[in-house]
Amino acid sequence: MSLGPAALPKWEKIRVQRAEAEYDSVKKDKRIAYGLWCVVGILGGHRFYLGDTARSIAMLFTLGGLGIWTLLDVFFIARRVRTVNHSRRAAIMSRYNILEEGGI
Which residues belong to any copy of the TM2 domain (predicted)? Predict the structure, then answer.
């Protein structure tokens, strides 16, 4: 038996709302990542945005692996954004001691 959000006490709702607000402030947007890929993809701008600093620096100094990494990244950006957001959400919820259903 699981308690829904409506069954939570007020202080618990506030804690969940605070965690959700913190997550909203750090989550990454797929559209921004693709926009950066279009403008500064060859320099790794989209990877800097997603926090992949080491790969970003490698792309910066090799001009996106001579363009090959940049072209391949178009297929992986959406999945990388989901992965980054998932790990950030899990870290925030863990910090607030909030367990979510579905393994998130």
Answer: 27-75
Q: Tens of pLDDT along 48-68?
A: 999 999 999 999 999 999 999
CB 59 within 8 A of CB 43: yes
57: in domain = yes
76 found inside a domain? yes
Question: pTM of the full predicted structure?
Answer: 0.82
Residue 28, pLDDT score: 97
How many domains are there within the chain? 1
Q: Which domain holds residue 51?
A: 28-95
How far is CA 80 from each of CA 4, 17, 31, 53, 84, rounded to the nearest angstrom?
30, 26, 12, 14, 6
**Taking a C-beta distance cutoff of 8 angstroms, is the pair 5, 16 a contact?**
yes
Q: Does 102 fall in a domain?
A: no
